[in-house]
Amino acid sequence: MIRIDKYESLTAFKQDVISFLEQDEAANNLLLGVLQSLSEQDLTPLLMAAVRNNDNIALVLFQTHPKQIILSKPAALSSQDIHDLGGKLAQTIQTIPGFIGEKKITIELAMYIAQAKGTPSRILMEQTIYKLEKVNHTRHTNGNLRQVVDSDHPLIKEWVYQFCLETKQPLSLEEASNKATFLINKGNLVAWEVSGELVSMAYATRPTRHNITITYVYTPSNHRKKGYASDCVAAFTQMLLDRGFQTASLYADQSNPTSNYVYKQIGYEEITDSIVIQFQ
To answer: Most buried by CB count within 10 Å: which residue of 19, 46, 85, 187?
Structure first.
């Protein structure tokens, strides 16, 4: 029997769902990382819900972004369960802007909700989630990894702008500038430096009990296909493992075979496919 339990208390929500999410920290890195970064003093999330199947949590739904609800990695759910869930979500949640989650369940839920609400949906992005436990990499270039600092801001602002453009999350130049400032101030933004020039960057975010996620991996077009991104991500991943994280995870756009190849060569392994769907 499928039921949806909605929460008003962030503390109660965390108490109920974190142990379920931690069964696969890497696959749930987005939901778990965002959830653990919030406190009761922050703005209340737009949606906090647990889907229970015979009283056991089978799926977690969490929304802080106005355009999408994050779906956890699901427990075993039959096609009939997912059909029932889609109908109940359409009835229970007034506004469903879109989903990001494991590909199979996300597509099925989107289909049922689109039918129930008479609202067409579209796929924005298909990604693969990777997890690494041990770096397997030989350095390709004579460079070094260093933390990005305030004086790098003019360059990083442009890189953030281009990264968001290429990942279909466009920002204005002012927004990119503000984002660059935020990433630099967090202290987890690094770059690969060759002969005094920055040639690639990466950022670490959403730390959980054992896992941390790498994102904002970007190399400008004039420096691509030289091994810089590979060296940057490999060295940064090793640094994070040395800090005590047991695993690192990242998302890769399935339409970019180069980045997927690079991550696999470093030692990242595919664990699940993810998809972003929005309702129009």
So the answer is: 85
CA dihedral sign, ordered 123, 124, 129, 130: positive
Closest Cα to residue 259, out of 163, 173, 178, 172?
163
Short-list 147, 245, 239, CA closest to 191: 147
**Cβ atoms of 252 and 124 closer than 8 Å:** no
Residue 55 within a domain? yes
Q: Where is the domain boundary, 89, 119, 149?
A: 119
With b for 16 or more beta-carbon neighbours within 10 A and e for fewer, the 100-125 pattern comes to bbbbebbbbbbebbbeeeeeebeeeb
Please name every residue paired with 50 in a beta bridge, in sequence order, or none if there are none.
5, 60
From first to last of its 280 residues, the chain has per-residue pLDDT tens of 899 999 999 999 999 999 999 999 999 999 999 999 998 888 889 999 999 998 899 999 999 999 999 999 999 888 899 989 998 998 888 889 999 999 999 999 999 999 888 889 999 999 999 999 999 988 889 999 999 999 999 999 999 999 999 988 899 999 999 999 999 999 999 999 999 999 999 999 999 999 999 999 999 999 999 999 999 999 999 999 999 999 999 999 999 898 999 999 999 999 999 999 999 8
Same structural domain for residues 55 and 103? yes
Assess if residue 100 is contained within a domain: yes
* Among candidate residues 49, 54, 53, 28, the one with its CA nearest the CA of residue 93: 49
Structure letter (DSSP) for residue 76 = -
pTM beyond 0.70 = yes
CA proximity to 119, closest of 79, 89, 82: 89
Query: 89: which 2 tokens?
Result: 């979500």
Q: Name residues whose C-beta falls within 8 Å of residue 86's C-beta, 6 or more positions apart in sequence.
A: 108, 109, 111, 112, 113, 116
